[in-house]
Structure formats: structure tokens, C-alpha cells
Fold this protein.
Amino acid sequence: MGEMIKMVVVLTILSVISGGGLKGLEEWAKPKIENNVMNLVKGPAIRQILEAADNDPVEDRFKIQDGEEERNIFVGVFGGTADTVVVEASANGYGDKVAMVVAINMAEDSLRGMAVTTHKETPGLGAMAKDNPSFAAQFVGKNIGSPFGVTTDGGQISALSGATITSRAVCIGVNQAVETYNRLKPQLEEQIKGMGK
Amino acid sequence: MAKSFASEFTKGLWKEVPPFRLVLGLCPVLGVTTSMKNGIGMGLATTFVLLCSNILVSLLRKVIPAKVRIACFIIIIATFVIVVEQMMQAFAYTLFLDLGVFIPLIVVNCVVLGRAEAFASKNGVLKSTADGLGIGLGFTWALGLLGAVRELIGTGSLKGDVFGLIHWDVPNIFGAAFEPFGFAVQAPGAFVILGLLLCAMNLIPSK
């Protein structure tokens, strides 16, 4: 009986100390991690696709409620008017989730660009979605009225050679971003009205 | 005492280097060694977990009841793995992006649990510290070497840094005509090159 109690006590104490310590660590690390993701992954990607913008889209961002989720929206100012929003999206690729940022021109309902941010695709094949700029360039200027797809599925995007699954995931992600954008459009227009002066 | 400390430390560096001599903990060995940088980063993360868990297991070896020792070891190891994961995200985020899923998997790395069970739970703190450090650093150089060979063959050059402290940049050692052998940085290449390294290791007597 004594041994039994000892086992329970030791395991409980160990778990409590471990859990409590880790919670503290998480609280401490969380802002640093969010900062890193913004600075090292999303920030550079967004600045790159909105290179010609008059403002810094990473500075001019806001959060918007989308059902259960809270989404980050980045705003780009072109020629004095805030007409571009950047929406985040992700889709299942060959490895893990392929995350991306998609810039949409609100005035023309077309894509200003997209970039893959985080992914776990095969180096040299699927990873080219991020590393090869000509793949992402295919999306620039395309109208968002019809969904995107790779040419083998009857779409208009040429898949990366040897990485059809990744290419498909990128198209699905972009379509998701467009859906989010369409759903939130009225709120987005309201939000960015005053910006870009 | 001083002599045994040194011998516990050095055995991990050569005689019992986990991937090559014991052929243990191969999941990260094959998974993350696409470059020297990733190999060393993963090795150091594992070293930290191994060192901390060895020390704690050794300290608590009289308190932990024998029947639930594995559960206790796993709690201790898992805690330190999460510490590493959070710290890496906070301070070395680019490395975390490369290592990704393999960091949480240190929990089930049999090298870590193996040292806790076979060594730290039976030996004093000082010896366990030496053992953890030695095995960890042995693991690190093994991963670094495998990563370096794969990166050299796969891309023709070596480039990277360790937590921004040490940098290296070896451009195209095979000359401009070299065609990168992409096979080496993919999963099957890991098996082939690990096999060749094991073969080379066996040619050198372990004494």
C-alpha cells in the first residue's frame, strides 16, 4: 500500500512541476515566437509581394473576427489609396501544411501576388513553390472570379515539375484566401476606408 | 573519480557514439541531416535534453519508484523537449523551421531514454552529467558529419551557422562543372550515405 501511494505521489508531483513550469515558459516565449514568425517569415514575404506599395503593409495590419477565428489582415497602399489586402491561408501539401499569404487588389478583384511562407515540402521539388519566384509569379494579376487550379486539373497554373501535390495545395490555399476575402469584404472595406492618406 | 568522469565523457565521443557505434536514434539521423547546419542544430538540441534529463534522473534516482520509473523518465524528458522547442522558436526560429517535427520527436529518441534507464538511474550526478554530455556531443558530431557529406554531395557547397555564433561558407568545392546530386539530400540518400559512413567507421578499429 505504501509503495502504491509513493508511486502516485511521485508521479503527481513530477507532473505538476513539469506542467506549471512549461506553462510559465510558454507565457514567456509566446510573444517572442509570434514576433519571430512575423519578422522572419510573413513579414519578408508580404513586403516582397507588395514591393511597390507606398506604405509598410506589415506595420499597417489589423485583426478581424471571422466566425470563430481571428485573422490578420495586412493593408497595402498604392497610389494614395488603400486598395490591397493580404489574407493568410494554408492547405495540406505533400509534407505538412503549406502556409501562404495572398494579396488581393480590392479595386479590380484580382491577385496582386502570393507567396508561400512556411512549408515542409521536399527540397528541390515542392520547396520550389517558395524558392522559385516564377511559380508564384503565375498568380500575379489573375482575376479571382474563377477558382485556381493546376493545368492537369484543367486550371490555369502550370504545376512545378515533380511537385503536383504541392502546386495543387498552393492553388487550394489561394482559393481559400479568396473565399475568406469574399466573405469578409464588406468589413474589410469599412476597415481600410480611412487608411492610405 | 576524475578519471571516471573523463572516461564517461569520452566514451560517447568515439567508442559508443550513438548513430555509428550503437546504431541508435536513427530517426533524426536520417530525417534532419539534409545539411550540416540542421545536423548540428538537432544534435545540440538532443544534447541539451540528454544532459538535463540525465542530471535530473540521477538526482531523483532514489525517489523514483522502480515500477513507474519509465513514466517518470518520460515526463522529465518530455518537459525538457518542450523547453528546447519553445526556446528554439524564441531564439533560433529559422532553425526551428528546418527541424520542425523532429524536435518533439526527441521525446521518443531511444538514445535519451536509453541513457536515463541504463546509466543515469544507476549512477551519481557527476558521472551522469559526463555521460549525457559525451553521448550528446557524440550524437552531434555524427549528425554534423552525415549532414555535411549529404550537403556537399547534394548541393556542392556548405553554408550555415550555429545559433548565429559560428558561421561557415564553403562554396562549390567540386568546381563550377559539378552537377548537384539531389539524391543525397533526399531520404533514400540518407540511408545510402549512413551505410557508407558506418562502413568507414567499422574500418577504423574501436579499440
